[in-house]
Design goal:
Structural class of chain A: alpha+beta
Shape of chain A: elongated
Helix content of chain B: 40-55%
CATH superfamily of the largest domain in chain A: Multidrug efflux transporter AcrB transmembrane domain
Largest sheet of chain B: 4 strands, antiparallel
Distance between the termini of chain B: 27 Å
Strand order of the largest sheet of chain A: 3-4-2-5
CATH topology of the largest domain in chain A: Multidrug efflux transporter AcrB transmembrane fold
Order of helices and strands of chain A: HHHEHEHEEHEHHEHHH
Strand content of chain A: 5-15%
Number of domains of chain B: 2
CATH class of the largest domain in chain A: Mainly Alpha
Order of helices and strands of chain B: HHEEEHEHEEHEEEEHEHHEEHEHEHHHH
Strand content of chain B: 15-25%
Helix content of chain A: 55-70%
Oligomer: heterodimer
Shape of chain B: elongated
CATH class of the largest domain in chain B: Alpha Beta
Radius of gyration of chain B: 33 Å
Number of domains of chain A: 2
Chain lengths: 334, 485
């Protein structure tokens, strides 16, 4: 018997001589048996459910803390000349006769939300607020979004995520169409990747729903940047899945004596180091950004961080097991 | 693989590197060439080579300023919407010219929207400059027994304004200037021939209303307004309403000036005096000479970022990014030894080329764009890691170093290709679907990053490995980090 890589060599150059041969299939099988991840798939599915379920419940019953670009209205991020308390800002807000909410921002700033106001009314409002508080008001960031635009933004965000998912499904189906079983196999590979990807979106959405609505933290706000993070995570999560699937494709040719489940397990083992190391390096950078980076980016970076960790997990522990289950249900033994 | 390792490709990579070093350090090369000090403010910066300026274009979220999305409201009936939009953009451009904004953006969005980006201008000022419809309306005063409002100065109860046919489009020019005594600021308006005739006739009639020098009566006044309409005049019998309208523009009213006409003015130039400061006279002159907006506007969205917030964020994020990258480089070297070091060199090559591209294209740098850049570094690392892990496997399978490198790159390629294409897919969708500037910036940066990272990881790392591995000391297993799992 030949080693996996030696067989690959033979496949690459069918007429060439196979010279370098060290391992044997027994070695490969030993590695497969050493840690049977695919065999324990139900545990991993359960773990995923355990993480996703509270999030889904929160998403259904509590919804999301919407950023101003989704909610519509005006958001003032203000800094005051003297130190003021949230209660002071709230009473000053009431004194101006404007309906709105006050939240503490970062570095002693306050975030005030009101209905739609055009820039000149914004200026008038800031002046009035300063007058009631008896101090100067410094505008850090004021954003106003009309209701119709907010609606459009939400729709666009959903279209983007849907389109990205479908395109990825189509691309993977196309790429894996040559695997035994043809286009049907392609759809199995693409579909499994898509399910893993939905898992990541659900994890991300759930955690942010809990952060924003259950815990009431501003970092859990859903805005355009969050949707951008979701799409990025979609791309990244598919990275990891593709690496495993690509290895499966290769091993299906190389190790013909193994069942599909064994091939899948072997492929996970072979690519695990890469998946963990890559995600680890990205996580390193993101943690640095989260801890030391600018405040305006923190929610965005947190979303990326959660998504990438989840993406790596789902690629290894969900995508491949789903593929195995799918092929088994479809009656393909390998 | 033969192609990747060939000399033409190597020379191309070297040329790219030299070009990037030139672009990245353009400021310094420029200072050296012109004998300027290497640090501190130099009037001549950013560097320009002919008409070609090289510097990093900062987004509004970094340098502060206003981003607005405007919608055309009540466009004139019977006109092509695209024409109205184009005319509106041209007029807005003329109006903001006076603000002295660096690289203002006024661009169409869809068929009835306009995006405006003004660096360093607060939103309220932007709205003031852009938002006025600014139709100059000239009125005479006619008798109206129902009017009880006593004013403006020189006009008494029993009179209301009557809109004349002299309209804003008959103005050919307007400029702010000091009056003949050199004391007060005025705005001089020039009319075209039709306007000259009309204005001459109106002033003649005003003088005729109560002749004689030094006499005054309401009908001897001609008022200039901004955006006064028939609806306003219909409300004139409400004294409170009329009082609001006759306030000056600065106070939220519509009246510009209401002088007594001393002599008929047949020359076609009118001098508007009011209590102008130099800047308010200039503002009015700009408004009048840039023309009236064909359609008024609705502000759909506006974002008003202070410069301090952006500056603080970019400084922190930049530092954090550097720390993160340094840790990644350390990790790569510690874990993969020599190949890790070579990959880090390739990574620096990558960062240099991307930065150069940002300057040349140019790509506007936003905070989200910076996050995208840092992320794309992660992907550049990913391709290297894929190759190295594969390299270890091939070495363990007993290949020679050269064959292992070759096989590793070849076998890792499909995964690298597919994963990068999936990222390109998502980023192009982001770019196409989104209307938000930062998101577009993020998507574009990510796409550039992914494309360059492919070159850097496949071509640069592979070449570096091939070159360095020909030396003896590098072939020790320890240096290659192969021995371990």
């Amino acid at each position: 018997m030949l080693s996996a890589s030696a067989v690959a060599e033979a496949v690459d150059r069918p007429t060439g001589a196979v010279t370098e041969e060290t391992a044997d299939t027994a070695g490969v099988t030993r590695r497969v048996r050493r840690l049977d991840l695919v065999g324990r798939r139900n545990w991993f599915f359960a773990l995923s459910l355990l993480i996703i379920l509270p999030g889904i419940i929160s998403m259904i019953f509590r919804g999301f803390l919407l950023g101003i670009d989704f909610a519509g209205g005006t958001e003032f991020d203000l800094q005051f000349g003297t130190t003021v308390s949230q209660a002071q800002v709230e009473s000053a807000l009431a004194a101006t006769g404007t309906v709105g909410t006050v939240q503490a921002g970062t570095n002693g700033s306050f975030v005030v939300r009101t209905g739609y106001a055009d820039p000149q009314h914004q200026q008038a409002f800031r002046d009035a607020l300063g007058q009631k508080l008896g101090t100067s008001v410094n505008n850090l960031n004021t954003e106003t979004v009309g209701g119709t635009v907010a609606g459009e933004t939400v729709v666009r965000a959903f279209i983007a995520i849907l389109a990205a998912s479908l395109l990825i499904l189509a691309y993977l189906t196309f790429r894996f169409r040559r695997v035994q079983g043809g286009w049907r196999s392609g759809i199995q590979f693409g579909g499994s990747a898509l399910l893993a990807l939905l898992h990541d979106v659900a994890v991300l959405g759930g955690i942010f729903s809990i952060l924003g609505k259950v815990l009431g933290l501003r970092i859990g706000e859903i805005d355009t940047l969050f949707m951008t993070a979701v799409l990025t995570v979609v791309g990244f999560s598919v990275h990891d899945t593709i690496v495993v699937f690509d290895r499966i494709r290769e091993n299906m040719i190389v190790a013909r004596s193994l069942t599909f489940e064994q091939v899948a397990n072997l492929s996970i083992m072979q690519t695990a180091a890469r998946s963990i190391i890559t995600s680890f390096t990205v996580v390193l950078v993101l943690v640095a950004l989260l801890v030391a980076g600018g405040d305006t980016l923190k929610g965005f970076v947190l979303a990326l961080l959660i998504g990438i960790v989840s993406g790596t997990y789902s690629s290894v522990f969900n995508a491949t097991p789903i593929l195995v289950v799918w092929r088994r249900l479809a009656g393909v033994s390998r | 693989m033969q192609l990747v390792l060939s000399w033409p490709v190597r020379i191309l990579v070297a040329a790219l590197l030299i070009f990037s070093v030139f672009v990245d350090g353009a400021g310094y090369w420029y200072r050296i060439a012109n004998h300027y000090p290497l640090t501190g403010y130099v009037a001549d910066m950013p560097p320009h080579f002919g008409d070609w300026q090289l510097y990093i274009h900062k987004g509004l979220d970094i340098q502060g300023g206003t981003h607005m999305e405007l919608q055309l409201k009540d466009p004139p009936a019977g006109r092509n919407l695209a024409d109205v939009q184009a005319e509106e953009i041209a007029i807005i451009n003329r109006r903001i010219n006076n603000l002295g904004v660096n690289e203002p953006l006024v661009a169409p969005l869809g068929s009835d929207r306009i995006v405006v980006e003004l660096a360093g201008v607060p939103a309220s000022k932007a709205q003031e400059v852009i938002g006025r419809t600014a139709r100059l309306v000239t009125t005479t005063w006619t008798e109206d027994t129902k009017s009880t409002f006593d004013g403006p100065e020189g006009v008494t109860a029993g009179y209301k304004p009557a809109i004349s046919t002299l309209s804003g489009d008959m103005i050919t020019g307007a400029q702010a200037q000091l009056d003949t005594n050199g004391v007060a600021w005025t705005v001089q308006v020039t009319f075209n021939s039709q306007g000259t005739d009309l204005f001459g006739k109106m002033t003649q009639e005003a003088v005729n209303a109560c002749p004689g020098s030094g006499t005054d009566c309401p009908k001897r006044h001609i008022a200039e307004w901004l955006d006064l309409n028939q609806d306003d005049i219909a409300h004139w019998d409400d004294p409170g309403y009329a009082a609001n309208i006759t306030k000056t523009i600065d106070q939220g009213g519509k009246l510009v000036t209401n002088p007594t006409i001393i002599d008929p003015i047949p020359s076609g130039t009118a001098v508007i005096s009011g209590n102008f400061s130099q800047s308010s006279a200039k503002d009015l002159a700009t408004l009048l000479s840039s023309g009236a907006l064909p359609a008024s506007i609705n502000i759909l969205t506006s974002t008003d970022v202070s410069a301090s917030l952006g500056a603080d964020s970019i400084k922190k994020s930049f530092a954090a990014g550097l720390i993160g990258l340094a840790v990644v480089v350390l990790f790569m070297v510690a874990y993969y030894r020599l190949p890790g070091f070579l990959a880090s060199v390739a990574l620096i090559f990558y960062a240099g080329v991307v930065l150069a591209l940002f300057k040349v294209v140019p790509v506007t740098l936003t905070l989200a764009g910076m996050a995208a850049f840092i992320l794309s570094v992660g992907m550049a690392v990913d391709a290297n890691v894929l190759i190295f892990e594969r390299f270890k496997e091939e070495m363990r399978a007993g290949r020679t170093i050269g064959a292992a490198v070759d096989a590793a790159v070849r076998r890792a390629w499909p995964a690298i290709r597919d994963s990068n294409i999936s990222t390109l897919l998502t980023s192009s969708i982001l770019y196409l679907v989104s209307t938000s500037g930062p998101v577009k910036g993020f998507a574009f940066t990510l796409a550039i990053g992914v494309a360059i990272s492919l070159i850097s990881s496949i071509i640069v790392t592979h070449n570096l490995l091939a070159i360095v591995l020909t030396s003896g000391w590098a072939r020790r297993q320890g240096a290659l980090g192969v021995g371990r799992g």
